[in-house]
């Protein structure tokens, strides 16, 4: 069966004014994942990433380490939700980076409240709706997976919110479960999804085989 490999970006710049950039470790995580795919003979017919630099740079570093990589296409449907907009709608403040630096634990507690309100439809403010977010993700992935043969693999590189929402939809779980799936997902981890004619099935979730060795355990990160 055709397979979709859905990958989260490598470690980014949490707590910095510009989060949307990979750290040196983030690039290395992506290269190691590409090497893992190459060693196992996994090649990709198509590759897609969102517009964010952390997504694109992860895809480029990953693909550079594989055999016969395809051209990387960019689709805004794989962009992450606007966390700054959700935070501002919930708190009335735009000082996201400042809150992260002052107290990361309290920031995540506050942001979770914003996220829950967004999913529940109770968050008031200027931000994309939860329904529109899910719709654009599905449109991007449907386009990526159209016309695949049984032996084809395709790659999509995005972010935790996109992945959590996708998996919650596949499993037909309660909408709020997308939040927990998002916050569990580790940098450069992947989901393996079997793409059938009539349905998609989750085969692997949050996998990090390229980091599952003693000398790379310190390279397992979440932001």
UniProtKB/TrEMBL annotation:
One GO CC term on file: cytoplasm
Superkingdom of the organism of origin: Bacteria
InterPro entries reported for this sequence: His_Pase_superF_clade-1, His_PPase_superfam, PGM_Phosphatase
Pfam families attached to this UniProt entry: His_Phos_1 (PF00300)
Molecular function GO labels: phosphatase activity
Protein name as annotated: Fructose-2,6-bisphosphatase
Source organism: Alcanivorax dieselolei (strain DSM 16502 / CGMCC 1.3690 / MCCC 1A00001 / B-5) (Alloalcanivorax dieselolei)
């Amino acid at each position: 069966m055709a397979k979709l490999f859905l990958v989260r970006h490598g470690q980014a710049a949490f707590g910095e004014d510009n989060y949307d950039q990979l750290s040196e470790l983030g690039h290395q995580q992506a290269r190691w994942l590409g090497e893992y795919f190459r060693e196992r003979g996994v090649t990709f017919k198509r590759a897609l990433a969102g517009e964010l630099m952390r997504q694109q740079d992860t895809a480029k570093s990953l693909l550079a380490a594989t055999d016969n990589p395809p051209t990387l296409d960019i689709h805004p449907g794989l962009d992450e939700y606007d966390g700054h907009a959700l935070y501002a709608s919930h708190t009335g403040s735009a000082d996201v980076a400042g809150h992260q630096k002052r107290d990361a634990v309290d920031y995540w507690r506050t942001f979770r409240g914003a996220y829950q309100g967004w999913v529940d439809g109770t968050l008031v403010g200027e931000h994309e709706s939860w329904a529109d977010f899910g719709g654009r993700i599905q449109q991007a992935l449907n386009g990526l997976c159209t016309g695949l043969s049984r032996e084809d693999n395709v790659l999509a590189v995005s972010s935790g919110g996109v992945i959590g929402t996708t998996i919650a939809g596949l499993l037909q779980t309660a909408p709020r479960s997308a939040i927990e799936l998002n916050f569990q997902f580790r940098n450069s981890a992947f989901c393996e999804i079997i793409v059938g004619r009539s349905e998609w099935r989750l085969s692997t979730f949050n996998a990090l085989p390229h980091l599952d060795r003693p000398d790379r355990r310190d390279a397992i990160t979440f932001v």
